[in-house]
Specification:
single chain, alpha+beta, FAD/NAD(P)-binding domain, seven-stranded mixed beta sheet, 16 helices, 21 strands, 18% strand, binds flavin-adenine dinucleotide
């Protein structure tokens, strides 16, 4: 038996530092210093620098690694995120009917013993014309009034309203690097890996760096970003493209200033649909992060930059745009022999629902729980890990595709092509067919394999005006009056919460001052 004693993380972006911190914390919690965690990052190769919106799981991850919330907010110039506001996704601007919807992070209200509200919303018990998310959750009221999801007195990473964060990716990596080294015992090497040598079994024997010579470990975690230096170039783990389903493969991004230092900061990501994709707009403490994700089959780079600059208006004048290429897909074998990929090295799904960092969190969680103490048992852990990652990717891809194929936009080839049944996975087609007869239920999902729970599917489906015909089942829902009262109570609770919760900018500034 060969005991696992050392892990080497290669790459110091969000993936590298999150993986190193999480692994170091987890292994030291069981048996202090039993496994050493090293990280090597290149002084010459920069990190991607986008990836600023997160998923609510980030709160559990940051709490698990013991990072103080005030230190995190100040260091990563972070703000709170309570959901995603989808503009012009339902229909194009100017079309009659709703064009927008909100995907909040709070699950629909469910009072113990009270009726499940979705069927009653479908049967018309909510106030007329009220959107599903507005009827079942108070979160849209809160964000429309620029409220934070927590109070200063709440314990770190907690609060009455579900949330995630927006942050500056480079600053976040720096905060994690400090925390990882100072508190968790991660050993950092600043060096560029030039080549990798394999042993006779085809496992990695060592990586050879320019500045520090050979570095060896029992497990190598490839966090080298889109280049996938170890898992792709050395271990030859193939990439499964899903570009036939999700067409976006380019982004043009920019950091722009606020109009004024006290401009309110939205506590949600704004996603605005465009002719060949969509634009993200994220409010950080001192600037916005904005980017246009588009399909190169449906737009040239020049046209995309022109569309993007038109969106930005004066804010983008004189600023240089960064162009990025990517492809939606993943490596079915994220883990081969003694090499496991985390982050962009393993795969990527366009950032519509901020799944990149959430997949990093998932991968590091799985590695820490599956990591064998005996290095000879690596194969079993790899198989388990790969199956879990593939299941998550495929479900995420279905979920993202649903946003596109439910849209009523037909104003450009990008949107019509997205409705071509040949581009819609059968797994998604089957779900949608079922949900025409009845709404999504938690039994439709296996929670360990899902990133998005039932409520997220419901918010997007009904935000996009999907029709579930419950009329034939009306008699199965006899509690219309009780449901009406529940809908009214949610609105009352929202008014009370407005008094209880501080303003978003105000809270962020206070917590940063207290750091
Ligand atoms: P990188 O940031 O590229 O880091 C790679 C690291 O590897 C660097 O430190 C580099 O120095 C090091 N390295 C590379 N080669 C070597 C070498 N030879 N030797 C030593 N070190 C080396 N995710 C979200 O969750 N939310 C979002 O809103 C979001 N938006 C995105 C928008 C776009 C357009 C794209 C493309 C991605 C987005 N993502 C988002 C994904 C997110 O950016 C990534 O998941 C995240 O940044 C992790 O990147 P990484 O650490 O894998 O790679």
């Amino acid at each position: 038996m060969a005991q696992l004693k050392k892990v080497l993380v290669v790459g110091g972006g969000t993936a590298g530092w999150l993986a190193a911190c999480y692994l170091a914390k987890a292994v030291n919690a069981v048996d202090p210093r039993s496994v050493q965690v090293h990280l090597v990052e290149s002084p010459d190769i920069g990190l991607l620098g986008v990836g600023e919106a997160t998923f609510p799981s980030i709160r559990g991850t940051l709490a698990a690694i013991g990072l103080d919330e005030r230190r995190f907010l100040a260091g990563a110039t972070a703000t709170y995120k309570q959901g995603i506001h989808y503009r012009h996704w339902v229909r194009p601007p100017g079309a009659p009917g709703a064009t927008h919807f909100f995907h909040p992070f709070n699950a629909p209200s469910q009072r113990p013993g009270g009726p499940e509200l979705l069927p009653y919303w479908l049967l018309g018990a909510a106030p007329e014309g009220m959107a599903f998310a507005d009827a079942v959750s108070m979160q849209s009221t809160l964000v429309n009034h620029s409220r934070a999801p927590r109070r200063a007195k709440d314990p770190d990473y907690q609060g009455p309203v579900n949330h995630a964060f927006h942050f500056d990716a480079a600053c976040f990596a720096r905060v994690l690097a400090e925390h990882g080294q100072e508190t968790l015992g991660v050993i950092r090497h600043v060096a560029t890996v030039e080549r990798t040598e394999l042993d006779e079994q085809g496992a990695i024997a060592r990586v050879v760096t320019k500045e520090e010579g050979d570095l060896t470990a029992d497990l190598y975690v490839d966090c080298t970003g889109l280049r996938g230096m170890l898992i792709g170039n050395v271990m030859q783990s193939p990439f499964r493209s899903r570009a036939d389903v999700l067409f976006a493969d380019r982004a043009v991004a920019m950091q722009v200033p606020y109009e004024a230092p006290d401009t309110p900061i939205p506590s949600y990501t704004i996603s605005t649909a465009q002719e060949a994709g969509w634009i993200w707009d994220i409010g950080l403490q001192k600037r916005r992060g904005v980017g246009y994700v588009y399909s190169s089959r449906h737009s040239t780079d020049d046209r995309a930059e022109a569309v993007f600059r038109r969106y930005l208006g004066k804010a983008g004048e004189g600023a240089k745009a960064m162009h990025i290429k990517f492809e939606t897909g993943y490596r079915p074998e994220h883990w081969r022999k003694n090499c496991v990929a985390v982050g962009l090295a393993g795969g990527f799904v366009e950032p519509l629902e901020s799944t990149g960092i959430a997949l990093i969190e998932l991968a590091t969680y799985l590695i820490t729980h599956l990591l064998p103490t005996d290095t000879d048992d690596m194969e079993g852990a790899a198989q388990h890990f790969n199956a879990m990652m593939v299941a998550r990717y495929d479900r995420i891809i279905d979920f993202i595709k649903m946003h596109y194929c439910l849209s009523q936009r037909r104003d450009s080839a990008f949107w019509t092509d997205n409705c071509d049944p040949a581009s819609i996975p059968l797994t998604l087609q089957e779900k949608l067919a079922k949900w025409r007869q009845r709404p999504p239920h938690r039994l439709d999902f296996i929670s360990d394999l899902e990133m998005f729970m039932t409520s997220s599917w419901q918010y997007v489906l009904y935000g996009m005006e999907f029709k579930t015909d419950l009329e034939p089942m009306r008699s199965a829902y006899p509690h219309m009056e009780a449901a009406r009262q529940e809908f009214a109570m949610i609105q009352q609770a929202a008014s009370r919460a407005l008094d209880d919760l501080p303003g978003h900018r105000e809270l962020v500034e206070q917590l940063c001052r207290e750091h």
